[in-house]
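Q: I'm building a small set of examples for a reading group on sequence design. Run inverse folding on the following structure and report the sequence directly after it, with nothing in between.
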C-alpha cells in the first residue's frame, strides 16, 4: 500500500502546517483501547520524517523531525506541529527516534526515575522486558546498581535479556503455571519496584510479592487491551497493608523535559552503556502484520516499520 500526496501538498501548505516524508513508523504505541481511527483515513502515530514543505516558522524544508500524530503513509500533512521534535543528533540511527531516543525512551527514563524513585541495591521486576520500553528500564536499573529480573514470552527473548541487556535473571512467563511461585523463586525477599507493562494475572501475582513501601509504575497492560472482559485483580488489599504506591503515567506528561532525557541517554548510547534492539519491518505494506504481531509477542525488541531508504 503506497500513497503519495507530495504534488498536492507541495502546492498548498496551510499556515502553521508542515508536510513530512516518512522514514520510520513506530508501531509499538497502538492498541484498540486508545487508538481511534476514522474510516478511510490513515492511522496516525509516532514517526520519523523529513520536512518537504512547511508553512510553520519553526520548521523548514529538509528538517528531520520525530513526533506523534503522523499518518501511516509516505507523505503526511501534519496539522499539529507542536507534537513534533526537531532531530539535532544524527550520529545515531534515525530509527532510534522511534525508540530509545523517542517515546519509549522517555517512558522508560521518567517512568523509572520519577515514578519508582529507585535506590541502589533495590530489587526490580520488569514485565514485557524485551520490548521497546522494558529493555531500557532494565538497563537503566542496572546502571543504578539494582538487581533486575525480567519476563518475556520466548526462550530467545529470555536469553536476550540476560546476554545483551545485562539483566541479572529472566524467565519465560509462558512456561510458568503459577506466577506467584515464579516470582518467589526470583525474588525470595520480595520486589521493591515493579515496572508494569502487562496487567492481569501477572499484576495480581506481583501484588503478593511486593515489599513494604514498594512502588509500581503502571506503564501499560497489553494483556488486557483486546479482551472483551478485562481480568479482575484479587490482591489489591496488599496495596493498603504493604503501603505500596501504584501510579499510572502517560509519556506526554514528560515531553517538556525531553532535553533532560537526552542529556542522560545520548552519552549512554555513545559510550555503549545502553544498547537497543529493533525489529525492523521493511515497507509500508508490512505495517498491518507488524502491528498484529505485537499482541502475540512476535517481535524481538522495538517494532519499527521502515517506509523508505531515502
Amino acid at each position: 500500500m503506497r500513497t503519495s500526496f507530495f504534488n498536492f501538498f507541495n502546492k498548498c501548505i496551510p499556515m502553521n502546517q508542515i508536510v513530512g516524508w516518512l522514514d520510520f513508523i513506530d508501531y509499538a504505541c497502538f492498541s484498540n483501547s486508545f487508538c481511534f481511527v476514522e474510516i478511510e483515513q490513515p492511522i496516525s502515530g509516532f514517526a520519523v520524517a523529513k520536512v518537504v514543505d512547511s508553512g510553520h516558522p519553526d520548521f523548514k524544508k529538509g528538517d528531520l523531525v520525530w513526533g506523534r500524530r503522523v499518518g501511516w503513509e509516505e507523505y503526511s500533512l501534519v496539522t499539529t506541529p507542536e507534537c513534533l521534535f526537531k532531530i539535532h543528533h544524527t550520529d545515531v540511527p534515525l530509527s532510534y527516534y522511534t525508540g530509545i531516543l523517542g517515546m519509549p525512551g522517555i517512558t522508560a527514563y521518567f517512568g523509572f526515575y520519577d515514578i519508582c524513585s529507585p535506590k541502589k541495591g533495590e530489587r526490580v521486576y520488569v514485565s514485557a522486558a524485551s520490548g521497546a520500553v522494558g529493555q531500557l528500564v532494565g538497563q537503566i536499573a542496572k546502571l543504578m546498581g539494582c538487581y533486575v529480573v525480567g519476563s518475556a514470552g520466548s526462550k530467545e527473548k529470555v536469553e536476550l535479556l540476560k546476554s545483551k541487556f545485562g539483566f541479572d535473571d529472566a524467565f519465560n512467563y509462558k512456561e510458568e503455571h503459577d506466577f506467584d511461585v515464579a516470582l518467589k523463586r526470583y525474588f525470595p525477599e520480595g520486589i521493591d519496584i515493579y515496572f508494569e507493562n502487562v496487567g492481569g494475572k501477572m499484576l495480581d501475582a506481583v501484588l503478593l510479592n511486593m515489599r513494604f513501601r514498594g512502588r509500581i509504575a503502571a506503564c501499560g497492560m497489553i494483556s488486557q487491551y483486546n479482551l472483551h472482559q478485562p481480568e479482575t485483580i484479587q490482591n489489591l488489599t496488599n496495596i493498603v497493608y504493604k503501603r505500596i504506591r501504584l501510579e499510572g503515567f502517560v509519556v506526554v506528561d514528560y515531553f517538556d523535559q525531553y532535553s533532560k532525557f537526552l542529556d542522560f541517554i545520548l552519552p549512554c548510547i555513545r559510550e555503549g552503556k545502553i544498547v537497543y534492539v529493533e525489529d525492523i519491518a521493511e515497507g509500508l505494506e508490512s505495517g498491518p502484520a507488524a502491528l498484529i504481531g505485537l499482541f502475540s509477542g512476535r517481535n524481538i525488541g522495538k517494532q519499527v516499520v521502515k517506509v523508505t531508504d531515502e
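Confidence is low (pLDDT under 50) at residues 1-16, 27-34.
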